[in-house]
């Protein structure tokens, strides 16, 4: 399975974001944009205006991660802004299947995100509606946190569930993903690496992406 890398703009140079993107865009499979509301997570970040500006400037897919309460109140503005993938936390809404269908009906790939302590049985009956799941490997809200190793068991279990159901699932991981933890999550079954600090705060962001993509994936 192909390993994909989505650089996380949360760690890009805020005053030189275009320059940060230009360095990595041709090696990136998508750009990851974290949307925080200060309620679901204790931080604030970007809004639809950034997604719209990125869409107007770049053709690269935009992977938009809503870390917000009641994501059903936010999806329309990010659909209109030009998100390519649009995801929300299963913990944040009462009707995840309805919201997944709504996003897909607007020709956008939906995904569901799980916090580190959220069990997989919360999405067991939704796998047929999904081709992307994001497993948080830190508690969401801030960049630069330490990788939570117990997430590896969840990644492995999710890959086994997908294989059993015959689902070609992109398993994304976000939080503490660097050249030390990337081989661990890939071995567990992840195939999409979302990484911010490790890429944008390195001396050679392009080299980091190339090395991440060169890690071998072993089929379950």
TrEMBL record:
GO-annotated molecular function: D-ribulose-phosphate 3-epimerase activity; metal ion binding
Gene Ontology terms describing biological process: carbohydrate metabolic process; pentose catabolic process; pentose-phosphate shunt, non-oxidative branch
Listed cofactors: Co(2+); a divalent metal cation; Fe(2+); Mn(2+)
Record: residues binding a divalent metal cation: 32, 34, 65, 174
Keywords: Carbohydrate metabolism, Cobalt, Isomerase, Manganese, Metal-binding, Zinc
EC code: 5.1.3.1
Functional note: Catalyzes the reversible epimerization of D-ribulose 5-phosphate to D-xylulose 5-phosphate.
Name of the protein this chain belongs to: Ribulose-phosphate 3-epimerase
Source organism (scientific name): Dictyoglomus turgidum (strain DSM 6724 / Z-1310)
Taxonomic lineage of the native organism: Bacteria, Pseudomonadati, Dictyoglomota, Dictyoglomia, Dictyoglomales
């Amino acid at each position: 399975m192909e390993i994909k890398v989505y650089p996380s703009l949360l760690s890009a140079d805020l005053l030189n974001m275009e320059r940060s993107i230009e360095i990595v865009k041709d090696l990136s499979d998508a750009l990851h944009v974290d949307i925080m509301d200060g309620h679901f997570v204790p931080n604030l970040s970007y809004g639809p205006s950034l997604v719209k500006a990125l869409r107007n400037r770049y053709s690269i897919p935009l992977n938009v991660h809503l870390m917000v309460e009641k994501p059903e109140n936010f999806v329309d503005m990010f659909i209109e802004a030009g998100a390519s993938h649009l995801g929300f936390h299963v913990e944040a809404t009462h009707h995840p299947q309805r919201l997944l269908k709504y996003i897909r009906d607007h020709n956008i790939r939906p995904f569901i995100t799980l916090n580190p302590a959220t069990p997989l049985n919360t999405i067991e009956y939704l796998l047929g509606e999904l081709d992307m799941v994001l497993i948080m490997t830190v508690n969401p809200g801030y960049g630069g946190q330490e990788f939570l190793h117990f997430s590896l068991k969840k990644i492995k279990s999710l890959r086994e569930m997908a294989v059993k159901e015959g689902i070609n699932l992109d398993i994304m991981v976000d939080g503490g993903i660097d050249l030390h933890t990337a081989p661990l999550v890939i071995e567990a079954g992840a195939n999409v690496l979302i990484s911010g600090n490790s890429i944008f705060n390195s001396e050679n962001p392009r080299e980091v992406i190339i090395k991440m993509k060169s890690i071998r994936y072993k089929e379950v």
